[in-house]
Amino acid sequence: MSPFAPIPPAPARPGYALERRFSALSEERPGPVWQTLLAANWPGWRDWYLTRGGSTAETSREAERALRRHMPEMVNMHDRLSAALPDDPLLREFLTFWCPPRYLVSCTQAASADAAGPFLMRNYDLDPALSEATLLRSNWRGKVVMGMVEGLAGLSDGINEDGLAVSLSFGGRVVTGRGFGIPLLIRYVLETCTDVQDGLEALRAVPCHMSYNVTLTDRQGQAATVFLSPDRPAMVQFTPWATNHQLGVEWPRHGRISATLERAQGLGRMFAQGQPDEAWLQATFLTPPFYSAKYRAGYGTVFSVAYRPALGTARLFWGDGMGQAWQMQAFAPATLDVEYTDFGSRMIAAPTFLTDLQRTA
Length: 361
Fold this sequence. Notes:
The protein is α+β, with helices and mostly antiparallel strands.
């Protein structure tokens, strides 16, 4: 069974209903798993990139030069990933994520600590049909990184073997500029940095094409959020959480729809009482306005995840609170099926752990 095999359609029922298969995969160097990810996701990303004007003559000329200038540590990895489709120069350009089309996700993220140590939790909000639905453990540059795939080789969030955990949320501004797409920046931080201070320095140094909020925590329990924008310097906030605005709500319609202020105020009240433990934060994240089931409108909470720097774990969970944890150093590839309805999301059954043959099928 391929981890990307389609799920038979559910019986017809009133309202919204969608089933997605999530995969947890591992690969030391780009190989069969990377080829499988490309086969599943590159056609959709290619269409998105071309139809939204991502590839231009200027972008093509600048893309690899920008990568070499701003992220030289990633050049060899970029070469290896691109080599999977040597006759497709558009893939090579796309994987730089230089000046991509506008890219929005409405999320909540927070770093806290409890008796088990520091942790980073996030809700990822998007149309469930558009999510790549893959937790990938990789060792592409000599550092083990585990996170949720975004933009083929990028990540929306993740953790590395040094115990640095990072997550992104949209910053609530429509301005764009010359810079990299945020999924590659999250990958870059996890591939090259060891702690929060390293991550902040990297994010300050690399241009971002839109406004995003990045929250970081590490094994020592340090935590910070950095506001990235294409038209103003990165701003570091020693606030361990973020929603979808920066200095204020600058896109009122998005602010209303996403309830960014309400979520921020709720987190502010919570953290004013002390650091919430994992159970408390999870209960909050699975309650409106943090949790959204507006899937028929094209967005909602696709997954939630909690990363534990000291343990090297990622625990995915859904609207009913059920989920599955993976350990970076003892990773067990698996698939699991999730149902989305107007009432929220839930795991349909326990994960199916993959044999060695199925891992690369």
